[in-house]
What we know:
mainly alpha
Amino acid sequence: xxxxxxxxxxxxxxxxxxxxxxxxxxxxxxxxxxxxxxxxxxxxxxxxxxxxxxxxxxxxxxxxxxxxxxxxxxxxxxxxxxxxxxxxxxxxxxxxxxxxxxxxxxxxxxxxxxxxxxxxxxxxxxxxxxxxxxxxxxxxxxxxxxxxxxxxxxxxxxxxxxxxxxxxxxxxxxxxxxxxxxxxxxxxxx
Length: 190
């Protein structure tokens, strides 16, 4: 396969991923912002109630009618408790959103035919960093949930896989960066 064909294939394969990552990033905003606002202001009335819980995705909201899902009813929480939970939900969503943003920007570069640029390495490093931070933040939120609400967490967040994958991605990108610098130094020397 020639370099032009390979580059054309990288561009063609990267566009769908960029579109999917754009949709995922948009959904993070469209779902998380109203959820965080609802944690702060929702008041159960009539047939609708809401509960908040901790899960592998962070702090989440459930709206229910007849049968209450696991979690802590929002009506039982003070505004201070709600604010702390909304802050944790915002931090979890922000970290996940930043990881998605850098992955989307990486595939945007690929779709333009930019493959071995320092911008690619920068986005790979930042994706790995934010993925690891998101995993840690979700784990912290899960540990703080019972402290804030006084109720046990019904979910279970485990940051190990996200932390390992994020850390591994960061280290691989750092090695790529060092190899690129060494290659540039070699070219300058010759």
